[in-house]
Every structure is written in structure tokens, then in C-alpha cells.
Design brief:
The chain has helices spanning about 15-25, 50-55, 75-95, 110-130, and strands at about 10-15, 35-40, 60-65, 100-105. By secondary structure, it is α/β, with parallel strands linked by helices. It has a single domain (about 10-130), classed as Rossmann fold. Helix 1 (about 15-25) crosses helix 4.
Length: about 140
């Protein structure tokens, strides 16, 4: 398992998380190259199937990066996303999949360092969990 390089998918809101990503680039802080960013208008648009699909396609981990609850441009987008993430974590657990493979993070627009650290945290967590093995019922 020493050569395991987890594939992680990050759904990032086009406001705070994407701004933090831009700040991180300006700081010359690079994301791990095994994190695939999917930009979305608002985390509130994330549906349950969006969160499950990357696992079906071979991802080892998935996370959602959005605004702070008090600064969501769409008022309750991050709150809706958090509820969906919690629901999908329960589904994963029922399927015998470690729920820690999925998470949600609140980021401030100007915190590029935190954006990169969030990605590294997810990669590290998934490294500890090991490769994702898709159950037959997913």
C-alpha cells in the first residue's frame, strides 16, 4: 500500500472556496495533484447523487468546500450541503464504507493556506483508510 495515491474529488463553491483557491495560487501553495476540483455555483446545489458518483467512478474520497454559514452568498447553501453530506455519510456507513471518506469544510475567501491544508487533510485521511473498494450495491 506504500504506492497508494488516493484520488480525491473536491466540490468547491464558486464564491469562497474558489476565491481561497485563487489566493492559494497567488501564495504559491500547490494543491496535491491527486485532488480533482469541480467548481459549482453553490454547495447548496450538491445533490446526493453528486456525492456518490465519484465513488462509483473510482474516487477514494470526496469533500465539499464552501462558504462559512454566515457568509454564504445564497444564504443557506452551505447548510443544505451539510445536511446532504451528513445523509450520504449515513448511506456510506450502511453500505459498509467508511463515512470519513466524505466530508464538508467551511472556508473563508481570503484563506488560501486553509484551502490547501483542507485538501492535504483529506488526502491524508484517505491514505489512512486505504484504497476504496466499491461494494456491489453502489
Amino acid at each position: 500500500m506504500n504506492d497508494f495515491k488516493p484520488q480525491v474529488v473536491a466540490f468547491c463553491c464558486s464564491n469562497c472556496a474558489s476565491s481561497a483557491a485563487n489566493v492559494s495560487e497567488g501564495m504559491k501553495k500547490a494543491l496535491p495533484d491527486n485532488v480533482k476540483i469541480i467548481q459549482i455555483p453553490c454547495t447548496g446545489r450538491i445533490e446526493i447523487l453528486h456525492l456518490l458518483k465519484p465513488f462509483e467512478q473510482g474516487a477514494d474520497g470526496v469533500y465539499v468546500a464552501g462558504c462559512q454559514e454566515d457568509s454564504c452568498q445564497y444564504v443557506s447553501g452551505i447548510t443544505k450541503a451539510a445536511k446532504r453530506v451528513a445523509h450520504v455519510r449515513k448511506i456510506l456507513e450502511e453500505l459498509g464504507i467508511e463515512p470519513g471518506r466524505l466530508d464538508i469544510f467551511n472556508l473563508y475567501a481570503g484563506k488560501g493556506y486553509e484551502f490547501v491544508e483542507t485538501a492535504r487533510e483529506m488526502v491524508s485521511r484517505v491514505m489512512e483508510l486505504g484504497p476504496f473498494t466499491q461494494p456491489e450495491n453502489l
